Structure prediction request, 386 residues.
Amino acid sequence: MNTYARQNIAFERGEGVWLWDTQGKKYLDAVSGVAVCGLGHAHPAVAEAICAQARTLIHTSNLYQIPKQQTLGLALTRLSGMDKVFFGNSGAEANEAAIKLARMFGHKRNIDNPAIIVAENSFHGRTLATLSATGNKKIQAGFEPLVSGFVRVPYDDLEAVAKVAEQNKNIVAILVEPVQGEGGIRIPNTDYLAGLRKICDANGWLLMLDEIQTGMCRTGKWFAFQHTDIQPDVITLAKGLGNGVPIGCCLARGEAAQLFQPGNHGSTFGGNPLATAAALAVVSTLENDALADRATQLGLRIKQNLSHALEGAQGVVNIRGLGLMIGIELERPCAALVAAALAQGLLINVTADRVVRLLPPLVMTDAQADLLTDQLAQLIKSFAQA
Prediction:
């Protein structure tokens, strides 16, 4: 179906930060499949894990125990401080699980119409419930009536959340991204998550964090909430968890971790041997190679390079980022930069109309980071002067 405005290019193979198209041209990938391939392309550990598992067993279903799923669950709960995990196949499914948890949580408190606070300019997926939670009318258009039970507030606005708490007694949870990715790499004030935690505690709500884009070391921590001293009740993950193999999960702790019982939720493919083998290789590599720290170092290098190269350049509003989530906001819409970069062998992304979004692999070298910033700075200068 005509669901993608695809670029007129197809890639044949990849290695690390590089991709080659079907004509043999080489490209530097600064998008990572939209924050998916954190270990780059064709990472040896992931490739070997997939091949070894495929030769042994791909799928049995969740009617039976799956040892690698249990091992992965233990690793993720250890790294996140959560208690339990449900495995699905995507970020949207992970967020669906979180939404269902919140509703069950509310019903157990005798709230007939439980509601969840969500943020403007957010993105939580494209299923009917997750697009209803998403703060983007373009994504919602044509799919009305939307799923009810979501109350929208401005992002990074604690006063707005507190006001809703006073006025709406059906609220049971807050669902937000620690950094808004699709919303334009919007980084909240340092007290935002702590403030949300305080409001949730005061009202008996669940704090649910969508870490689908921010998780798996991308921001310089395993999870973006770890830049603070708070602990959420629910976390959703996907994207970088499988380095390209579809897998997502919903982590929970405390009462939220005890809500689902057999028959309440499920997934045919979720957490199968192949997907969990790939994810275990990702987790092991991220941990052994200290790639969270590397993401911090690379992110600082890229931002400093761009700030220096674009100092005084017309049309540049600001450069912001956390780890390897970096946004360069321009004064005017800049979607044309994607094609211009592609022509020069560079893959970038534009989101929120005016923000060049960089999500490079965590395995990028300093030299590759410098090549990226040199090329991109020149492209932005040329675009601004056009």
User: Anything to note?
Assistant: The chain has two domains: 11-30+290-385, 44-288. The first helix runs from residue 32 to 35.
